[in-house]
Amino acid sequence: MRALASRLSTGLLVLAALLAAVSSFAVDLPTFNLLIRAGRFIPETIEVPANTKFRLLIKNEGPGAEEFESADLHKEKVLAAGASSFLIFQPLKPGTYTFFGEFNPKTAQGRMIAK
Ligand SMILES: [Cu+2]
């Protein structure tokens, strides 16, 4: 009984440590916001730190669905009207990376500048 209890509490400690690691990871990640509205990105230029993992929060205010797409960044994400989502970016080398909205490619054009 005692062995089981101690194994259980060790398990709980490990679980607690894992949860703490996961939540601090999520909190510490630098986060940038991108809005999609009426076939455009706001802002159209996003500055991010180079060589730093970060998170991009994307909100599509519509009307209509949009797809964030970037060949430079090897990312794509479809968002229904009214939806929010996020993408995690591994550290980028300094440079300019373009992205566009696949459903409104003429107007939905943006760039990410890592420096
Ligand atoms: Cu696509």
Helix content: 10-25%
Spans of at least 5 consecutive residues whose pLDDT stays below 50 are none
Which hetero ligands occur in this complex? copper (II) ion
> What's the Cα radius of gyration?
19 Å
Q: Strand arrangement, largest sheet?
A: 3-9-8-5-6
Number of domains: 1
Furnish the topology, listing elements before pairings:
Blueprint (H helix, E strand, L loop, with lengths): L1 H27 L2 E7 L2 E3 L2 E4 L5 E9 L3 E5 L4 E5 L4 E6 L5 E7 L7 E6 L1
Parallel strand pairs: 1-4, 3-9
Antiparallel strand pairs: 1-2, 4-7, 5-6, 5-8, 8-9
The protein binds copper (II) ion (CU).
Copper (II) ion (CU) binds next to strand 5.
Q: How would you describe this structure in keywords?
A:
23% helix, alpha+beta, 115 residues, binds copper (II) ion, five-stranded mixed β-sheet, Immunoglobulin-like
Overview of this protein structure:
It is a single chain. The chain has 115 residues and is of the alpha+beta class. The protein has one domain: Immunoglobulin-like, CATH 2.60.40. It has 1 helix and 9 strands; from the N terminus they run H-E-E-E-E-E-E-E-E-E. A 5-stranded mixed β-sheet has the order 3-9-8-5-6, with no helix packed on it. A 4-stranded mixed β-sheet has the order 2-1-4-7, with no helix packed on it. Strand 8 and strand 9 form a beta hairpin. It is elongated, with a radius of gyration of 19 Å. The protein binds copper (II) ion. The site of copper (II) ion (CU) has 4 residues, from strand 5. The site of copper (II) ion has 4 residues, from strand 5.
